[in-house]
Design a protein that fits this description.
The protein is an alpha/beta fold and 248 residues long. The chain folds into two domains: 6-72 and 178-237, Nucleotidyltransferase, domain 5; 77-170. The chain is 53% helix and 13% strand. The protein has a five-stranded mixed beta sheet, sandwiched between helices. Strand 1 and strand 2 form a beta hairpin. Helix 2 (77-87) packs antiparallel against helix 3. The longest helix is centred in the middle third of the chain and has 24 residues, at 93-116. The chain starts with 5 loop residues before the first strand and ends in an 11-residue tail after the last helix.
């Protein structure tokens, strides 16, 4: 994970002996890593990716992520769109303002999907997004003056974080959303609802390892149960354990 140029990061609640813990995940196209920690803080993020991780992370706007250098941080547009949809339910000028912002975000994703579909080049994507970015920024400035507290706070925050919104336009391997991390956590959330958490250190290590191994081998198109079978056979016959990464 520490050597990969980009990682998607997220966290969700977990329980140990009825007390709140946090299950963190870092995931990329090659591997996933899960860790259980006491806190939802910057130190936990460093323990997940390493003290000196120099790559780019995708995340939401949770405070510890905002301590990452802006040049290495892509904010999730899916979260922003959900926020804007919530603001569009407010009355008066806030509704119109939010819908106009949503319109600009739709234009942004339309160009992104054209690029992903090989309909336009990276250079054409950059050119197409420039007026959309300018219009969205202008809407945020309008939001600051709108007189609605929630809209004003949202606009002020995004203007402050604007440099973290558009890395995906220019940088290879960067996505506009953090959907990969949210999807990686779904299996864990289902497990949590069925098992109600853990009771010991050993139980937590088991959860971390099983989730990490399952997600990683499946990214390589391998069967999780087949891999576990190979591990048990290696232990039984005292042969070398199979590598978690597929060999060429």
């Amino acid at each position: 994970m520490q050597d990969h140029p980009t990682n998607h990061v997220d966290e969700t609640g977990w329980k140990r002996e009825g007390k709140l813990r946090w299950l963190w995940v870092a995931t990329n196209e090659a591997a996933s890593l899960f860790k259980l920690r006491n806190n939802r803080d910057g130190q936990s993020l460093k323990e997940l990716l390493g003290e000196n991780y120099a790559g780019l992370i995708h995340s939401d706007r949770h405070r510890p992520y905002l301590k990452v250098d802006a040049a290495r941080h892509q904010l999730c547009w899916a979260h922003l769109i959900r926020n804007l949809r919530g603001l569009s339910q407010r009355s008066g000028s806030a509704e119109k303002w939010a819908n106009e912002c949503l319109g600009e975000s739709e234009k942004l994703f339309r160009e992104w999907h054209r690029f992903k579909g090989a309909q336009i080049s990276r250079a054409e994507l950059i050119e197409a997004v420039e007026p959309i970015r300018a219009a969205f920024k202008e809407q945020l400035k309008v939001g600051q003056r709108l007189g609605d507290g929630a809209v004003g706070a949202f606009s002020h925050e995004l203007l402050r974080l604007e440099d973290r919104l558009y890395h995906f336009i220019k940088e290879r391997g960067v996505e506009p959303t953090n959907n990969a991390a949210e999807q990686a956590l779904r299996c864990a959330v289902i497990w949590r609802k069925k098992c109600f958490g853990n009771q010991s250190d050993w139980g937590e290590r088991f959860v971390e390892r099983m989730l990490s191994v399952k997600a990683t081998v499946q990214k390589q198109g391998r069967g999780f149960l087949n891999y576990l079978t190979e591990c048990l056979q290696a232990e039984w016959y005292k042969t070398p354990a199979p590598t978690i990464f597929a060999t060429p």
